[in-house]
Amino acid sequence: MTRIHFSRKQLCIPYGLFLALFVVIPMLLILFYAFTEESDGAITFTFANFLNFFTSKAKLSTLLMSFTIAIISTALCLIIAYPVAYILARSRLKKRHVLLMLFVLPMWINFVLRITALRELLDLIGLLGTQNYLNTLIGMVYDFLPFMILPLYTTLEKLDNSYLEAAADLGGNQFTVFAKITFPLSMPGVISGVTMVFMPSMTNYVVSDTLSNFNITILGKLIDEYFTTYNNWHMGSMISIILLVVIFLTMLVTGGFRDSKQEARGANLW
Amino acid sequence: MVKRILSIAICIVVLIFVYSPILLLVVYSFTDSKMIGQWNGLSLALYGQLFRDERIMRILFNTVWLALAAAGLSTVLGTAGAIGIFYSRRRVAKPLLAVSQIPVINAEIVTAIALALLFSMTLLYRTYFSLIVGHMVLCTPFVLLSVMPKLKQMDPNTYEAALDLGASPSQALFKVVIPQIFSGIVSGFMLSITLSLDDYIVTAFTKPKLFDTISTYVYNAVKNGTNSSTPALRALSALIFIVMIVILLMINLRAQKPAAKRSTK
Question: How many helices (H) and strands (E) does chain A have?
């Protein structure tokens, strides 16, 4: 029998090649496409796509509107998720894990089906076709709420009770204890929740398409349109770069970029 | 007391918000009507239509095999990658871990068009290959992230001990390392399945033209305005909701039992 000689380190070679070929190169291709244009088969370097985006009123207003929708839906998610996570994490219920399960369980069910179900409900109560923006916001909150609840719950549950008791002993009323101790200590959860909700709210066009009857174009949809409808991949790539820059700047402001997305995705619940 | 009632009220209101669309669809899947809101008495007619609809059955089958294939391949690749990275020098490990974060943090539409740009230069554009690779790009980093912590928790001496006792490196790997990180591998696999089943955007940009998963089929049905004219889809959604909720509750309740036992000691 021949023994296969390999070192454990070499196991990362296929994975490394996979990342290089299917993650790094494609991202570089976006950069390449964004700063080039094609005419008569000749590819030339250009800033035209960049200038075009920032001189086009339609594109700028899409960016602004998409950004606004993302901010509002992230804020709504936070406002709804925080009390729920707080109640679940601070309650002395023995079954609180099961209760948490009920809140985050939908995130493992196909989101297109859930959004279509929501569409039927909005249709039934007469909102579909009349309240496009409201429906889109409801949809974003509906879809992304679990991603906000989970990281908030995780940080709030770990919170050391002795801090809260010490603050109360030192004369802080309930509101002060919350504002000065609980909330600041839960910031890591808030940040990873915001990270999880903000980006898809700017890009997940299945939600806005389905619930606005294809009347609202968010930034992700604009990229899709440049690829599938207008067949201008160079402009589509440029919008992707701009999207990434906007998200990068937003994360910089909120202090995001923690590798807690996997946690928020519920990996630890399996 | 007031606080307690308020707490319960908040939870109930949010749960109603989360489950009312699902409940609506499930209830109206048990009546034979074209539209939701019109109740024509209890009936399993829609389920009959669903199981006779060859197209929907094929799409269901497509979705499941795609998820199993993508999750299986991602699990092998990601687990090997995690082990390799764990034993590599920092100089190698750091950039690999950093690049692993790209698909996790990136917007799905950007991942999707990036892959479309790459594959459009080859003959593999819009084939099963590009589709499976697309799903693997989404899933593999999550496998890596699930396995990595288990490797860190492992006692590093056990591998060396196995070698000292005469095991070959591959025996030591399969009989000593893998069993210790197995729970991470399983959660990476499960997570991959749910990520693949849930995906729309990457699928739309990498799938063969005539191939559909549940996500792309339902989205296109809404787009073409045929959503309400195919009530069988309602039965499909309801069925998926029920099956998934039952499976997920079973997995999670079972997973919590040992933990609960430990805490009562």
Answer: 15, 2
